[in-house]
Here is the input.
Amino acid sequence: MAFTLLFDGDDTLWANNHHFERAIERFCALVVGGEWTEQAVRDELDRVEEAAWHRGGAGKDAFGRNMREAAAGMVLPGRLPAVLAAVDAIVREMETSAVALMPGVVPTLEDLGRRHVLGIVTRGDPAEQWAKIDGSGISNRFTHIEVVRDKDEATYRRLVAAWGLDPATTWMIGNSPRSDILPARAAGLRAVYIPNPSTWRLEHAELDPADGGVMTLAAFGELLGAF
Ligand SMILES: [Mg+2]
Here is the structure.
């Protein structure tokens, strides 16, 4: 049976979060001091990022704005200009346009593409995400590609309608319970969860173990046995 397989980009097709993790380590080193332990700094940055989730979009620029806002609440006013300049340097030095595909992606897509229709649904800054899609060398494998501002139920319903898909035979495949699995299920799609240890803390969410519409795989290459 032919399915439509929609893939998440960041940390599913290519590694991404490690760039942000390294930047957060540098940010912590910059801001830490007094009551602001490393854990407290991380928690505060998470709080700002969560508050900005829907309004701020996603990507490097949004992340930079969030670090600046978090820093403003943690460092003494006299130090702030120097800290903000250092934050801007951290963002500038993030090498997010260097695309490193996850293991097994190329041969797996080549095989799956013979039997199924493939798509990419990735959340983030359009220019940044398209640079990764174009730089991945695999974009010609996909019939449908869209960079979305938010991955919620309405987004999946809109794409299903726009691309003329049948939800019953469409699967969303990704590493994020919050963005890939739960909203796709809410829109009537089935989903494949491929956990990635380098998943952003804010992307975690509780999955229902009794939900038969979600398949969990340990690695990208296991898709071949499933489809
Ligand atoms: Mg992802």
